[in-house]
Every structure is written in structure tokens, then in C-alpha cells.
Specification:
Length: 510
């Protein structure tokens, strides 16, 4: 939606308005968000984007020292010899975990609030494709250090994928066939192939992220949850955007503020975690060393193949039934995830986005979430051992219990209660009575005083941590790179918290 009223806008908004008159950017590439959207759950996608950008930057730096012809030694060299190499490796590894985690949380939130509904079906499908590409990227990257655990899990995974139907097994095998040349081992050639694929898949993720953001900006922020059939696009609520203070479009400076906050918190959190818990890195004799041994076929035969945590639920199927059936189950999970918007619209025929109005969708999604957790934990606790058909039988029980409990609870108990006393508003939404928690007191004066004190405290913390980081970098304390990483990560988290206070409590309160 294009905003024409310039009153109360900041410098950034006026600059973008000036650009809009010449190249058409304001309100097209970045749209102003309504006031109700300034809650953290509306910006979970920004955490995913921050993690991806962190992976691109750190991945490019790691690649400067990575040699596919000798992957393990180059990994050890990066950690032990390159300045900040251990911190760089740890940040890149934990950043991959963070991206997968934030992606799962983001998709779960969008499922709960129904952000996949018409006309956002394509955006959900693009997001599901992004999830698949991200898992593929993580699978490939997990193999590149060529340590005993990672390469054993990778080769086991490749063997399991050969049971895929629809010719997918042939496609996967074609991608992993390497030439037989004198002096070239099969493993080294495959590592080199994976290194190339790591960048190709990363480029595909970048393209899909751009497409996802384009569709998001086209549709705008999702309207608040409603229990009635209402428009799903923000642009269809023109009157509310003009009259309702909770729907008032905010200056873009506030949007950039919350994006900066999420970036600082996501990247700062990863850097802090990577410093406090170095990824497969320990200190021996005062020197940082890589803890994982190099891959060896003899040792691999005695090592249970354990995939990384985000693939444990897939591994669970192959431990429960024969590989062909497991492949069909995995593809079934994938198909239901990708096609969920159409299942909700044409099979369940839900009309409103509120969870109590989507009992079948919530029951099915809950079954997926619970079984994902149960399968992952079960697979992790039984390394190298078959589970047997009881595994998929437990999954069936989980889905049955989800439907038998949640569907009637939502449909016949919570839904009537939610609709009782429900007062629709023309243009969508419901009328909600605002609560006054401090009657007779000046709420804004107290809030301003709290904000001022918080601002001074956090500003002092930022200055202190910045000085400490500078001193650590200059004087090189023991394990100085990890110590400095911890300070830098804490510094970024403090700055992100400060910006968050200003964004959430310092906006337009009219």
C-alpha cells in the first residue's frame, strides 16, 4: 500500500519517498507495517534471513582455507592455524543449526496462525522448498569436514536415498557418480563434488529467499486472527488502516529498527553460543584443536551412523520399516507439508484463520509436530539399532490421538466458547476491549521513565562490552578468539535488546 501522508515520518521515510518519485521503491519493495504487527512472532522470518546472511559471509571466509582434495587437514588447519579460524568454523557450524531451527519455528508459527491460506499458497510452497533446500545444504555441509561421524552418516544417507521411488534414486546416483582417474580416490572426488553443490544449493536458497520476500511484500503482513471469514490481504482493510489506531501504518524507520534488532539478536546469539560451546573444538595444551577424528573405513564399520538432529526423524523411518516403505513415508510427509494450504482449503474447508476455527488442520499439524519430536529423540537414543514396526505404529497412534482429542475439543468445546460474545467489525477483525492495568495513573510517564533507565543501562553495557572486546583483540588473552567472540556476541545481544525496547515501546502510541 502506498502511503501519501508525510506527516510524522522520519528521515528514512522521506528519503525513500524521494526515491519513489524517481525509481519507484517506497511502498513497493518495502511496505510499511501496521502497528499490530510489531510483535516478535511477526518477524521470525527475519531471524531466518539473518542466519542465512551469516552463513553466506562465514561460508565464504571458510572456503578461502578449505581444500576439497584434503578436506580434513584443511579443516584442522583452519581451526589451529588461521587467526579467528576456530571461531569462524564454530560460528558457521552453529549458524547452520540456527537457520534450520529458526526455519522450523517460523513455519510452525505460520501454520498455527494460518498464514498459508489463500492467496498465500504459493508463498507457503516457496517456504517449504526453502526448507528442503536448507536441509539439503545442511546435509552437504555436514559432510565437508570429512570426519568419522559426518562422513559415515553422509554415506549411509546416500545409500538410503537409493531406495527413493519415481526415479529419484537414479537422479541422486547421477549427481554422486565421480570419474575414476589415476590417483583420485572415490571419497575425495565426492567431497569435491559436494563442495561445488554446497555453493550451488546456497545460490538456489538465495533465489528462493528473494522470491519469498517478493511475494511477502506483495501480500503484506497477515491481518490479525479472526473467527469469521474475512479478507486475508492487508490492502482490503483500507478503512481500518485509516481509522483504527492499532492498524495505523508505522514509519519505515520502525520497520528497519525491528529488522536490525532481529539481525543483532540472531547473529549475536550464534556468535555467543559458538564462543561458549565451540563446535567440535577443544583446548589441548593451551591450543585449540579439532576433536573429531578423520574418516577411516575400518573405524566407520564400528561406528553407528548418526545423522545430524534435523535428519533424525527421517532416519527413524528407515530404522522402523524396510527402506522402500520408509522412502514412501518420507515422501508422504513432504507432499502433505507442501500441499497443506490446498488440503486445508479443499479437504477440510476451513473458512477462518483462527486456530479454533481450523480443528482438522490443527489436529493434523499437531500430529506432525509431536511425531517429529518423538521420532527424533527415539532415533537418537537407539544409534545403530533397528526399532521395528512399532516405530511407525507409535506414529499412527500419535496422529489418531491428535485427531480424537484436539478435533472435538476445538470443534465442540472451544469454538462455541470463542464465538460467544463475539462482535464482528465491518472490514474484518473483532472488537476487543482494552484493559487498563493501572487505572488513575500516568502509564506513559512511568513507561518513559522505565525506558530511560533501560536505555542508560543497556547503553552502558554496550560501551563496556565494546571496550572489553577491543582490549581482548589487542592483548590476545588465552583462547582470545573465543573470549572475544563471547564479548562480541554479548555486545550484539545487548544492542539488539536496546533497539528492541525502542521499537516495541517507543513507537506511535496514539
Amino acid at each position: 500500500m502506498k502511503v501519501t501522508d508525510d506527516r510524522g515520518k522520519g528521515v528514512l521515510d522521506r528519503i525513500l519517498k524521494w526515491l519513489d518519485d524517481r525509481i519507484g521503491i517506497y511502498g513497493h519493495t518495502i511496505r510499511p507495517a501496521p502497528k499490530y504487527a510489531y510483535r516478535l512472532d511477526y518477524w521470525l522470518g527475519s531471524f531466518v534471513l539473518a542466519s542465512f546472511i551469516l552463513e553466506v559471509v562465514t561460508g565464504a571466509l571458510v572456503a578461502l582455507y578449505y581444500v576439497p582434495a584434503d578436506p580434513y587437514k584443511s579443516t584442522v588447519y583452519l581451526i589451529q592455524q588461521v587467526p579467528f579460524g576456530a571461531l569462524l568454523f564454530s560460528v558457521h557450524s552453529w549458524g547452520a543449526y540456527a537457520m534450520v531451527f529458526f526455519l522450523l519455528v517460523h513455519m510452525t508459527r505460520n501454520f498455527v496462525v494460518g498464514a498459508y491460506r489463500k492467496p498465500r499458497e504459493i508463498m507457503w510452497i516457496v517456504g517449504a522448498a526453502l526448507a528442503g533446500l536448507t536441509l539439503t545444504e545442511a546435509f552437504i555441509g555436514y559432510s565437508l569436514p570429512y570426519n568419522l561421524i559426518s562422513w559415515t552418516a553422509t554415506t549411509t544417507g546416500l545409500n538410503l536415498f537409493t531406495y527413493m521411488p519415481f526415479g529419484l534414486s537414479v537422479l541422486i546416483s547421477q549427481f554422486t557418480i565421480v570419474p575414476t582417474l589415476p590417483g583420485l580416490t572415490q571419497d575425495v572426488a565426492l567431497v569435491d563434488r559436494f563442495f561445488v553443490f554446497h555453493w550451488i544449493v546456497g545460490g538456489l536458497i538465495m533465489l528462493f529467499v528473494a522470491l519469498h520476500l517478493y511475494i511477502f511484500e506483495k501480500h503484506g503482513i497477515t491481518p490479525p486472527l479472526t473467527k469469521e471469514e474475512a479478507p486475508e490481504l492487508l490492502d482490503e482493510y483500507g478503512e481500518r488502516l485509516e481509522r483504527d489506531p492499532d492498524w495505523k501504518l508505522q514509519p519505515l524507520m520502525r520497520t528497519f529498527g525491528i529488522i536490525l534488532m532481529t539481525f543483532l539478536m540472531a547473529i549475536g546469539g550464534v556468535v555467543l553460543l559458538a564462543s561458549l560451546v565451540p563446535f567440535d573444538i577443544g583446548v589441548q595444551g593451551g591450543q585449540l584443536t579439532y576433536l573429531k577424528p578423520e574418516y577411516n573405513a575400518a573405524l566407520a564399520a564400528q561406528t553407528p551412523p548418526i545423522p545430524d538432529w534435523y535428519f533424525l526423524f527421517v532416519y527413524f523411518f528407515y530404522k522402523s520399516v524396510n527402506p522402500v516403505d520408509a522412502s514412501w513415508i518420507f515422501l508422504g510427509w513432504t507432499a502433505v507439508t507442501v500441499l497443506f494450504p490446498f488440503i486445508d482449503q479443499y479437504v477440510f474447508r476451513h473458512k477462518a484463520p483462527h486456530p479454533v476455527m481450523r480443528p482438522a488442520a490443527i489436529a493434523l499439524g499437531t500430529g506432525f509436530i509431536v511425531s517429529f519430536i518423538v521420532n527424533s529423540v527415539w532415533a537418537y537414543e537407539t544409534p545403530g539399532r533397528d526399532i521395528g514396526p512399532i516405530g511407525v505404529e507409535v506414529d499412527a497412534v500419535i496422529f489418531a490421538v491428535s485427531f480424537l482429542t484436539l478435533f472435538p475439543l476445538l470443534k465442540f468445546v472451544l469454538q462455541p466458547r470463542a464465538l460467544k460474545g463475539y462482535e464482528p467489525i465491518v472490514g474484518g477483525g473483532v472488537k476487543v476491549r482494552k484493559l487498563n492495568f493501572m487505572p488513575g495513573m500516568s502509564q506513559f510517564r512511568i513507561m518513559n521513565r522505565v525506558l530511560q533507565l533501560s536505555f542508560l543501562g543497556l547503553l552502558s553495557a554496550v560501551v563496556y562490552l565494546t571496550l572489553q572486546s577491543t582490549l581482548v583483540l589487542i592483548f590476545h588473552f588465552p583462547s582470545w578468539q573465543l573470549y572475544s567472540g563471547a564479548l562480541i556476541g554479548t555486545d550484539m545481544l545487548a544492542a539488539g535488546t536496546l533497539i528492541g525496547l525502542l521499537v516495541f515501546f517507543g513507537g506511535d502510541r496514539r
